[in-house]
């Protein structure tokens, strides 16, 4: 299990990503709007990991509510797993509560699932399946 | 430049790290108290990156003030660079403001420097030198 990315919520994902590209030289990996998750996503490569900038499509979305409550900032961490269904079963067996008991498709077209932050010391944690 | 670690501020770093070790199987990489930074640090390995759990040694420390203001959560991101003095010079040349214009020694004994979050879209960003 490795650190796949850190999610950063901002009012303007493109502006934030452009700033990090310019300052740190991180290359653009993905730019996509994901209507069913209510976000625009801009991902930059950073070694084997990514920085994922998230912008809400409206205030009434998970990222929109996060911004209204806390302002822009670090939003979640994501770990890559080889088999997400096996990882979910393992976590549930250890007593963790999942937001997604069934994987859904993330911005990059890969299976993802979020855990309930109440199970992870208040930290929002995502899993992504990378073979 | 690759994502070296994500910093997580909690009231009890050991408890948080133990939870992530148990749930995600991340191995312990480092456990250390750093009095001059006012923190206890517990680091877990996660591929080429780390999850760094930070616990304030007192309320009147940067991490203590963060917890009082925002509660436990994601605190900073850190990028690894091969030459930290060159990276600082490059960032200053691009107009970024540094908290540390001169590198100091981090928990793992490596040179580190933080940027002013006002230069990085409100995100606290650290650099660490890894040859």
Folded structure, characterized:
Two copies of one chain form a homodimer. Chain A is of the alpha+beta class. Chain A has one domain: 2,3-Dihydroxybiphenyl 1,2-Dioxygenase, domain 1, CATH 3.10.180. Chain A has three helices and eight strands. Chain A has helices spanning 13-24, 62-70, 84-93, and strands spanning 2-9, 28-34, 39-46, 49-56, 73-81, 104-105, 111-114, 125-129. Chain A has an eight-stranded mixed sheet with strand order 2-3-4-1-5-8-7-6. The model of chain A has no long low-confidence stretch (mean pLDDT 96). Chains A and B meet through strand 1, helix 1, strand 4 and strand 5 of A and strand 1, helix 1, strand 4 and strand 5 of B.
Query: Radius of gyration of chain A over alpha carbons?
Result: 14 Å
As for the CATH topology of chain A, it is 2,3-Dihydroxybiphenyl 1,2-Dioxygenase, domain 1
Counting structural domains of chain A, the number is 1
- How many angstroms separate the termini of chain A? 11 Å
Silhouette of chain A: globular
Biggest interface, chains and residues, is: A-B, 40 and 40 residues
In a nutshell, what does this entry contain?
Chain A contains three helices and eight strands; from the N terminus they run E-H-E-E-E-H-E-H-E-E-E. With 131 residues, chain A is of the alpha+beta class. Chain A has one domain: 2,3-Dihydroxybiphenyl 1,2-Dioxygenase, domain 1.
Features:
alpha+beta, homodimer, globular, 39% strand, 3 helices, 8 strands, eight-stranded mixed β-sheet, 131 residues, 2,3-Dihydroxybiphenyl 1,2-Dioxygenase, domain 1
């Amino acid at each position: 299990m490795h650190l796949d990315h850190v999610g950063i919520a901002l009012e303007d994902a493109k502006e934030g990503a452009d700033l990090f590209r310019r300052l740190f030289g991180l290359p653009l990996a993905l730019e996509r709007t994901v209507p069913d998750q209510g976000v625009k996503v801009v991902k930059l490569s950073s070694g084997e990991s990514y920085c994922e900038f998230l912008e809400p499509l409206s205030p009434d979305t998970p990222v929109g509510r996060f911004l209204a409550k806390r302002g822009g900032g670090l939003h979640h961490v994501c770990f890559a797993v080889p088999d997400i269904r096996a990882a979910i079963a393992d976590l549930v067996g250890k007593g963790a509560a999942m937001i997604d008991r069934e994987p859904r498709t993330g911005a990059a077209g890969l299976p993802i699932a979020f855990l309930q932050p109440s199970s992870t010391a208040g930290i929002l944690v995502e899993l992504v399946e990378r073979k």
